[in-house]
Specification:
Pfam families: DUF4283 (PF14111), zf-CCHC_4 (PF14392). The chain is of the alpha+beta class and about 425 residues long. It contains 11 helices and 12 strands. Helix 7 runs antiparallel to helix 8.
């Protein structure tokens, strides 16, 4: 076996015992919208209680976010589907009837009732109501009867709501010949949501928009502080002799390396060089300083030696000098397996040769890499979920004093029968003392 071996797919036999299509016909498939707050194990146990079907349904956890409930009766399944939206731990779940070949948008829409408020009196028609609700999603049902009295201040519609979109509270519509009107939307049975972006998939503390905004603000503050520090330390002020001789770009920080383009000592020497002359001689010196810096713009070695005052790197021929270990907590390779087997063999041989002088456990510890933090401890270790820890043995269990059994010491010179009698007599004395 090798990593280069081709991974050929396995064909499952086309037999009835390999298919669960018949049992899935009376089932629903669903998914959680906020897995961080909806534990799948609890959902499987709690939803039958909410549906009041108890022993007439069986839940199956398909993944950390997907689940299936298989019903015994058709009417129970239809009743559950009719009373949507369902929530678990105050967060919505999306459910739909099982289909053998689900479409691309399967479990992406929530069939939800919405109440529309503040509808203009001059546009109280079925077509207008449908247009007001169409911004939420595809309209499925409109509850409106113009021939009967209406006691509520809203109109109910049922829409297919895309769970990836925010739960809209209001929407402004431009009415022909009138002022703009704001329609209010109230979603029925929908409980928790993100109170920043109004989505149903996360808490406000974990909102990606807020997290990105905080990152952007932190980056902006960091850049602002760095810019202020550069201005204080590196920018050429008006009273500086180099002002007008060198530009700020020539003496600033290199964006690639993060180091100064010109060493402060070199800048100080330039200032002293310019201050030592007056009049025409000073202008000549200024031109010399400007030309010398410009000539080194395309000479990386000259910049290193004359402007940054950095020495050249040391070139050696010893390849493995001061070589260290490269830590990689990935899967074991072939060399690790060979090394592990060699060490296991050595440890077993040593354990057979001298058991009394050995302080390590008799069982050889396999040498392998595992996912953990880069922390190290001395001694024999074993892997756990959070890192490496020393192997600990179980503590000696000692019963409380009142529960201990007395074991008297026997002295020499007694026969077997006499020893038994003396032990019995002493035990009786001890028991009498405890009763007293």
């Amino acid at each position: 076996m090798s990593l280069e071996e081709e991974d050929v797919p396995v064909t499952l036999p086309d037999l009835p015992q390999f298919s669960a299509v018949e049992s899935n016909k009376l089932s629903i498939i669903g998914r959680t919208l906020n897995p961080d707050s909806q534990r799948m194990k609890d959902l499987i146990l709690d939803m039958p209680r909410k549906w009041q079907v108890y022993d007439r349904v069986r839940g199956v956890a398909l993944s950390s976010t997907m689940f299936q409930f298989i019903f015994k009766h058709e009417h129970d399944l239809e009743e559950v589907m009719r009373k949507r939206v369902w929530t678990f731990n105050e967060w919505s779940v999306v459910i739909d009837r099982w289909v053998e070949k689900p479409p691309d948008d399967y479990l992406k829409y929530l069939l939800v009732w919405v109440q529309l408020r503040n509808i203009p009196v001059n546009h109280y028609t079925k077509e207008a109501i449908e247009a007001f609700a169409d911004v939420l999603g595809k309209v499925d049902v409109v509850v409106y009867d113009p021939s009967k009295a209406q006691s509520n201040d809203y109109v109910r519609v049922r829409v297919f709501f895309d769970v990836a979109r925010p739960v809209r509270k209001t929407k402004v519509f431009n009415i022909p010949g009138c002022e703009a009107v704001t329609i209010r939307y109230d979603f029925e049975r929908v409980q928790k949501r993100c109170y920043h972006c109004q989505r149903l998939t996360h808490e406000k503390e974990k909102c990606p928009l807020l997290i990105q905004a905080r990152k952007d603000q932190a980056m902006e503050r960091r850049n602002k502080v760095m810019l202020e520090n550069q201005k204080k330390a590196l920018l050429i002020q008006k009273d500086d002799p180099l002002f007008g001789v060198l530009s700020e770009a020539q003496v600033g920080i290199d964006a690639v390396t993060g180091r100064r383009k010109i060493n402060p000592e070199v800048l100080q020497n330039m200032r002293e060089y310019l201050l030592a002359a007056d009049g025409g001689e000073k202008r000549v010196r200024e031109e010399r300083v400007t030309k010398s810096v410009q000539d080194l713009e395309n000479d990386s070695e000259g910049q290193r030696n004359f402007l940054r005052l950095e020495g050249p790197p040391l070139v050696i021929t010893e390849v493995d000098k001061d070589k260290g270990i490269v830590f990689d907590y990935s899967l074991k390779n072939v060399e690790n397996n060979l090394e592990r087997r060699r060490l296991e063999t050595d440890i077993l041989d040593n354990s057979k040769a001298d058991v009394s002088t050995r302080s390590m456990p008799c069982q050889a510890a396999p040498l392998e890499f595992f996912e953990c933090s880069t922390g190290f401890t001395s001694g024999y270790t074993e892997a756990n979920s959070s890192g490496t820890s020393k192997l600990t043995t179980g503590r000696r269990f000692r019963p409380p004093k009142r529960m201990r059994r007395f074991k008297p010491k026997l002295t020499g010179g007694f026969s077997t029968e006499e020893k038994g009698k003396s032990v019995a007599v002493q035990c009786d004395k001890v028991s009498n003392k405890r009763r007293a």
